[in-house]
Amino acid sequence: MSSLLAISDLHISHPDNRHHLHRVLPYSPRDWLIVAGDIAERKSDIRWALEMLSERFTKVIWAPGNHDLWTTSGDPSAPRGEERYRELVKLCGELDVITPEDPYPVWEGDGGPVTVAPLLLLYDYSFRPEGTSTKEESLALAYDTGVVCTDEMLLHPDPYPGVEAWCEARVVETERRLEELDPRIPVVLVNHYPLVREPTRVLRYPEFAQWCGTERTADWHRRFNVAAVVYGHLHIRRTTWHDGVPFMEVSVGYPREWRRRGRYPEPVRVLPA
User: Which of 18, 38, 132, 202 is the most exposed place for a label (fewest CB within 10 A)?
Assistant: First the structure.
């Protein structure tokens, strides 16, 4: 049996996570692997991980996470924003890894045919905490409570004036592409962030939700013929159901997180269901 597998938030800049990457293995020689973002902060680490995974799986599909897009002082190559993303897309092209810029592949294995659509959508601060009505209010609350995503320092939106504008451009372009798909073939949507807000409601710190997606995608699982949504970012590995569609959070997370669960997590089987 061939499987469409998924994993995210590998965070291999942590030595224990890097060491355990050898545990990310196919179940059969024909398996595909979805990587839903947050491999690492350094381009060289992202290349190392994708190269290793590409040697094991028939096809690797990557959707970028916020850590992948960070520009850090420790990275010798320091492009920002869109330029950073385009460099990673080029890197993936060299390794034959599918990105959001490529034609969406069709999984013809067990449970198929299904189109697999990796996305880059970002966030626009619309997942605001209750009691706030603007980005300014929600950010002020986050800073007051000390719950501020590192994106505010390291995720640069260049050449856009802000992450919201970058998110807007990506949502518009992605909607156009999804509308062009054959509606008779189901699609697996792959994004680093959840496409609906509900999964963020279990966060220990609700102020963090504003860095976790956009309300503009809240109906995509109903508008399109969606078989499943795959995402990460929250480091809360589980599957929830929304309007009959499974939303699969497939994070590895940081060592302190997966150790609490007992062991390094394996990839999640998306198909066959």
Answer: 202
